[in-house]
From TrEMBL:
Residue positions of the active site: S167 (nucleophile), D300 (proton acceptor)
Protein's name in the database: Putative acylesterase/phospholipase RssA
Keyword Lipid metabolism on entry: yes
Sequence motif: DGA/G, positions: 300-302
Highest taxon in the source lineage: Bacteria
Alphabetically ordered keywords of this record: Hydrolase, Lipid degradation, Lipid metabolism
InterPro entries, per the entry: Acyl_Trfase/lysoPLipase, NTE, PNPLA_dom
A Pfam family reported for this protein in Swiss-Prot or TrEMBL: Patatin
Organism name: Weissella soli
Motif GXGXXG in this chain: 138-143
Length: 512
């Protein structure tokens, strides 16, 4: 079934009422013919995807932030409850505060199932609420990123009603149960690999980490967990001493069954109990051994569900801010159509997974702030933070003209007129970015950000267009050879196989 907003003709098909707004279906169909012509009346239709046959249509008016239903017709093949639930979900998707309907025929069972409550004579209302959940995924030493996300959300008065944490997200989540990040900041300002695992480093590169994981798995030689317990114990005691503001649930994995396990903090939770569950949720096997709790073994929650969006939705959340701090693709849980998921994820690689360094944590926290501000409109950009409304459209329209003005880069401009070369360049720009459909603004931003990344422009400041171009020019003087500078003549084939050469041309024109 697909939903449309057209106001269709009913034809001769005997549509029935989905809900008793009129005395009978004939009166409802007659009213529909007049109502659909009114400019202030909106429609939601249900159409069978296979046959393209109209199965139902609902008409409504907007009254402040309410939808006032004035008609609802369905075919004989469609159940009234199913149709109304479809439509109510759409109103929830569009974030109406409530739906109102005036009925002359009451169907108590239908009203109850649709959660429509009587507020006046013949008037029924369904109010919508949109609880927010903050879901903190695992990510080892990247965990400070989530604290930066929380700080910006709180600044924007986006406070969670539910809190979920997995692995390091369980550590950070525990410190945010009272919607204050003071403890989280203090923790990340001092957390080192030695304090977590009792050694200086685990693996600075992916290859080194893989060697450590293999060695620990074969020899069952685990790093200690007692130091992490010592860090957590006073923090947990401090958090549990205060009344809980929001429900907090963490995820661990029962071992060796690899069974997802949820632990919800409540008023009866004791300090040692929560400490053990947090250690279990973050027990990255085989770096550390499983944690025994009540006769069962548990390891890192990320082994079964690194970002429990689906469970946050089942808990009642309609707005879910999910913080994902790992590399690779994100598993997309199935959630109801009226649940909006805001996936906060840095486009940058965040570095070693299990080596904790305060200076790197400070960078991660700043990147969490930047990405969240970009999503909320405080900053423009994707890889880099720009002042809002920074306009890259003129740049996208002029950089090819600039290439044509210089003898060294004119061949690039000539070959960019070739549709295949131009397509290959845009495809190359689209790798690892969120830009897929290029309007002039998106294209200009994609070009300038890719050039900034190749030169290593600092990712933490906030730039204007002018200051970013200045940074590119300065680094370009120092790192000219970091770009693929052609040693021979520029050819069509060369640009198709090495599209980064086009950015060498852009840098050349910016330096003039």
């Amino acid at each position: 079934m697909k939903i449309s907003t057209l106001k269709p003709e009913l034809g001769q098909y005997p549509y029935l009422q989905a809900i008793g707004i009129y005395s009978d279906a004939t009166a409802a169909r007659q009213a529909y013919q007049q109502q659909k012509a009114q400019a202030d009346v909106f429609a939601l239709t249900l159409v069978d995807e296979k046959s393209n046959v109209l199965e139902g249509v609902l008409l409504y008016k907007k009254q402040h932030h309410q939808a006032v239903i004035i008609n609802a017709l369905i075919s004989r093949r469609l159940q009234d409850i199913k149709a109304m639930q479809y439509w109510l979900t759409v109103f929830s998707q569009h974030r109406f505060d409530a739906v109102q309907v005036r009925l002359v025929i009451d169907n108590a069972d239908l009203l109850q199932r649709l959660e429509l409550n009587q507020v006046a004579n013949q008037v029924y209302v369904r109010e919508f609420t949109y609880p927010t959940a903050l879901v903190l995924g695992g990510g080892g030493a990247h965990g400070a990123f989530a604290t930066g996300v929380f700080d910006v959300l709180k600044e924007h008065q986006i406070l969670p009603d539910y809190l979920w944490g997995v692995s390091v997200g369980a550590i950070t989540g525990m410190s945010l149960m009272h919607l204050d990040s003071t403890v989280a900041h203090a923790t990340w300002d001092s957390l080192t690999t030695d304090k977590v695992y009792g050694i200086a480093t685990v693996g600075a590169t992916r290859y080194e980490l893989s060697k450590v994981l293999a060695e620990h798995f074969v020899r069952q030689n685990y790093f200690e967990k007692d130091k992490l317990r010592e860090i957590l114990r006073p923090v947990v005691a401090q958090e549990l001493a205060l009344p809980h503001k929001i429900p907090f649930t963490l995820v661990a994995t029962e071992f060796p069954l690899l069974k997802e396990t949820h632990y919800a903090v409540n008023e009866e939770t004791r300090v040692e109990e929560l400490v053990e569950w947090i250690v279990a949720s973050s027990a990255f096997y085989p770096i550390v051994d499983p944690v025994w709790i009540k006769g069962k073994q548990y390891i890192d929650g990320g082994f079964t569900d690194n970002i429990p969006i689906e469970y946050a939705a089942k808990q009642g959340a309609k707005e879910i801010w999910a913080v994902y701090m790992m590399e690779g693709s994100v598993y997309k849980d199935k959630v109801p159509a009226d649940v909006q998921v805001h996936m906060v994820r840095s486009p940058w690689t965040l570095g070693p997974l299990l080596d904790f360094l305060p200076e790197r944590s400070a960078e991660h926290m700043r990147l969490g702030e930047i990405r969240t501000r970009q999503m909320l409109g405080d900053y423009a950009g994707y890889y880099y933070a720009f002042e809002p409304n920074t306009d890259w459209q003129p740049f996208s329209q002029t950089f090819r003209k600039a290439l044509a003005k210089h003898a060294a880069t004119a061949p690039i401009a000539l070959f960019l007129a070739d549709p295949l070369v131009w397509l290959r360049f845009k495809q190359w720009l689209a790798v690892d970015t969120e830009y897929q459909d290029y309007d002039a603004q998106a294209l200009g931003l994609a070009v300038i950000e890719r050039l900034g990344r190749l030169l290593g422009v600092d990712k933490l400041p906030v730039y204007t267009a002018a200051t970013f171009v200045t940074a590119i020019r300065e680094l370009g003087k120092q790192q000219w050879q970091s770009l693929n500078v052609p040693n021979t003549g520029i050819t069509r084939r060369l640009l198709l196989t090495n599209p980064e050469i086009i950015l060498w041309g852009v840098l050349y024109t910016l330096s003039k």
